[in-house]
Write a structure and sequence with these properties.
Length: 164
Amino acid sequence: MDLVTPNLGLVVWTTLCFAILLFLLGKFAWKPILAAISEREKSIESALAMAEAAKEEMSRLTSENDELLKQTRIERDLILREAKQVKDHIIAEAKEVANVEGTRMIERARLEIENQKAIAMADVKNQVATLSIEIAEKILRKQFEDQRKQDQLVADLLKEVKLK
């Protein structure tokens, strides 16, 4: 039971040691410990503030990024629309030019065909005329070789001609 009952000397010396220890700790240890705790608290608060600022900045950047994406999509759609209009315009112009050129070529071919046809017809007429003249010449030579046939032809022609 001696262990459980405190002795007055032990209590005094324990109290005195505790007071000295408390004084020494207060004099030398508490200030650096409290300063370290205060510094640690400030650094934690600073880190939290920086994290909050980074979160706000990230939110702002995300919204800016979304806005830029929307603007980019609008610009892309506009560029695609303009490109389609330019393509349609170029195609329409090409079709128009092709139609005009085709019509012009067809007209030129038609004129060339008509010219060739006229040339061929003139050539045929010339050949027919030449042949006709040659045939008539041969017939007339045959007919006029004999004087009696000539007289008979003149008489027949005079009978056919009537004076008005």
